Amino acid sequence: MNKYIFLIPIALFFCACGVKQQRAEISSPVKVTVKSPNIKLSGLGFYKKGGNYVNLQVFAGATATLNYESSTTICINDNCMTRGIFNDKFFTHAHYAKLIDDILAGKPIYNSQNLTKTQNGFSQNISKNGEYDIFYKVINDNIEFEDFKNRVYVTLQKLEKTQ
Q1: SS3 for 100?
Q2: Of 140, 122, 41, 120, whose CA–CA distance to 56 is shortest?
Q3: Residue 95: is it exposed, middle or buried by C-beta count within 10 angstroms (0-12/13-18/19+)?
Q4: How far apart are CA 48 and CA 62, in angstroms?
Q5: How many Cβ atoms from other residues are within 10 Å of residue 28's Cβ?
Q6: pTM score, two decimals?
Q7: What pLDDT, in 10s, does the model give residues 44-53?
Q8: Domain range summary for the chain, segments of one domain joined by +
Q9: Under 8 Å CB-to-CB from 135, ≥6 apart: which residues?
């Protein structure tokens, strides 16, 4: 009996390693509007979020006009680009590289600068002389970002799922 006791910890170790970690993923239909001096699109799509992963697909008719994945590149009308190029084209101002990731994930931006928590989310007003003037809010997982100085606007409104 004593010679088998050492097998119990080894068996538990291998069983624990074999358990799959399920990634909690939220998937919902959304209405998306994206406007900047260089990029304009609006449509319905699908938003998936889980852990540190975000995927957003927007369709106009039956064609995917935007495909965003937080782990890779950003594609608009089959034209794929890095975050740096996307930031330059879309925001028309050099922000930190993962700004679009934070916005679409509904996370605070700029290290939570000027963060005001609300009952169902938060808002931020951030400005830097002559560079940007940002209003950003996330309420009930609905996202609104506007840079008044650079004329950039993003909304992501979750739609009710039908059964």
Answers
A1: helix
A2: 41
A3: buried
A4: 19
A5: 14
A6: 0.78
A7: 999 887 777 7
A8: 22-108+151-158
A9: 123, 124, 125, 144, 145, 146, 148
